[in-house]
Amino acid sequence: xxxxxxxxxxxxxxxxxxxxxxxxxxxxxxxxxxxxxxxxxxxxxxxxxxxxxxxxxxxxxxxxxxxxxxxxxxxxxxxxxxxxxxxxxxxxxxxxxxxxxxxxxxxxxxxxxxxxxxxxxxxxxxxxxxxxxxxxxxxxxxxxxxxxxxxxxxxxxxxxxxxxxxxxxxxxxx
Length: 174
Description:
Layout: H1 3-7, E1 15-18, H2 20-24, H3 30-38, H4 40-45, E2 78-81, H5 92-98, E3 103-109, H6 111-124, E4 128-137, H7 141-156, E5 160-162, H8 164-172
Parallel strand pairs: 1-2, 3-4, 4-5
Helix pairs in contact: 6-7
């Protein structure tokens, strides 16, 4: 599933991108930080931190951008989120309510962190959430599975889990 595929359905698409600079005033590089803590990065690779990945999760840096295959259309807003959930200190709830959106199809990375947190925040605000399992990922397959299991536990305590082909077929049928 791509952003263009969803846009063709004429359904609103809103994107989020974690921007720690908006909240903390600095960027980070998780891998670089882990390696620097152990002293391996400069010793083994003999290169400055900024040449490895740049600062991730900071607007304007290579480690912040949405991948080209999913890049938002010019009419689709991108909401910078300073935390793990898409609602914390953002205008997402207001944007959804202004568009009279009450059901969210949630995709992203990582399943167990940002996706799960966003679904829980949305559920607390009265939104129905459907997580598209094949449009989410984790570094660890078992975390992905556990994250999806938590969302759909107890008959959908936080939301439901489906897959993109089912969503696209439902959208095509009207």
